[in-house]
Amino acid sequence: xxxxxxAFLSRRHFFTSGxxxxxxxxMMSLMGDAFSGQAxxxxxxxxxxxxxPTHFPPTAKRVIYLHMVGGPSQMDLFDYKPQMNEWYDKDxxxxxxxGQRLTTMTSGQSRFPISPSKYKFTQSGECGMWLNQxxxxxxxxxxxxxxxxxxxxxxxxxxxxxIAAMQTGNQVAGRPCLGSWASYGLGSMNExxxxxxxxVAIPTNREQEQAISARLWHSGYLPGEHAGVSFRxxxxxxxxxxxxxxxxxxxxxxSIEQLNELNQLNFNRYHDPDTATRIRQYExxxxxxxxxxxxxxxxxxxxHTFELYGEAAKKPGTFANSVLMARRLAERxxxxxxxYHNNWDHHGNLAGxxxxxxxDVDQPCHALLEDLRQRxxxxxxxxxWGGEFGRTIYSQGxxxxxxxGRDHHPRCFSMWMAGGGAKGGTIYGETDEFSYNIVKDxxxxxxxxxxxxxxxxxxxxxxxYRYQGLDQKLTGVEPAHVIKPLIA
Length: 488
Fold this sequence. Notes:
By secondary structure, the chain is an alpha/beta fold. Helix content is about 35%, strand content about 15%. The chain contains 13 helices and 17 strands. Strands 1, 4, 5, 6, 7, 8, 11, 12 and 15 form a nine-stranded mixed sheet that branches. A two-stranded antiparallel sheet has the order 2-3. Helix 2 crosses helix 3 (about 30-45), helix 3 packs across helix 9 and helix 8 (about 250-270) runs antiparallel to helix 9. The longest helix has 25 residues, at about 350-375. The chain is globular. It starts with 10 loop residues before the first helix and ends in a 16-residue tail after the last strand.
């Protein structure tokens, strides 16, 4: 036989002659989003909103997620621990801390003195939920409509990884957030507004705010159109929403049409998903020029609405205004509205800051639930409230009966949900007498995400996106479970 016959080719000859083929295959594997999954997705999405078929009928059509940046103190709001009054200024037992990793802010303390909550708790509703009615009198009226979760936990002990984990399911930044997954899965219900909108509320007290950035509402490896669109709290809600002087609407429309014709030619040739995203963004930007001014003009709201939300709702950028805007967005078909409220990081002066924080959110949260109920939207709108972790029962810094500080605590914290299929009046999970360790029904943030996806109609195990050769999931590769007692 000829020595050049394929049967006589050596491994070295094969790899030499086939090096380009193998390199291309490796690149295709590493860039699977660009050349396979995203390219196909982009081809389908150009020209219409698109959606992924749900695995079962959703109970929530939309989500309003109220994130309290910094980590609210669970034992001062929702996790009643009256036994701690007997432990005032005594050291936290080592058997309770059990070698837990501490932040650098308290790891050097010589003592870990117990600081019981200075606030009065009262049972609320028929469910009997103990909560701080002193600071949350309005929210307490909704106790039987709210699903209370007192046993959330996470591994992250510092803000950056903790917020990333809560929003994206992973402590490492760069993955799609929950809002992007909702946008990808459910698509848009309004062709003139994004499926995912972000509002950053300005707290009344600005003593110790945490940095938050657009990475929290990034689409990660999902197509770029599923990233959150941030509305500003002052000036134009969207930069450059208005045409420049001398540019009439017809000229702007024609310019966008011509740009998109060029972009479509480019996409047809190279199938770059970023080009498809750019086409959709230009189209959406033009449509938003007409829809956003009407959306943000709250003068049409009734006096009853402003009495419900409070006078602060008239002031752009306040939490009350942001929550009212969230209802208006939900009413117009936006799938996911993320509202951030800062300054919940109570390392010191908790007694001076927590009342201000609660005053910002108490009436608006009650108003949002009541407003949605009156409009017949609460049953299919999931409202979520919570932070990225909890606080320590021991005091950081100086301790007195009237004031104290609390450090970060990932082992247990409280959140709540309402509407959208969440089981109102449920009190789920228990912590020990120190609100330090979970003793019953733990909820990892992966379980929380799996439950939210279930309410949106998705099996978290099957709700995936192909990226770098893997079927990526919001809940990752570690075990996650839908918490069925939380579902109505």
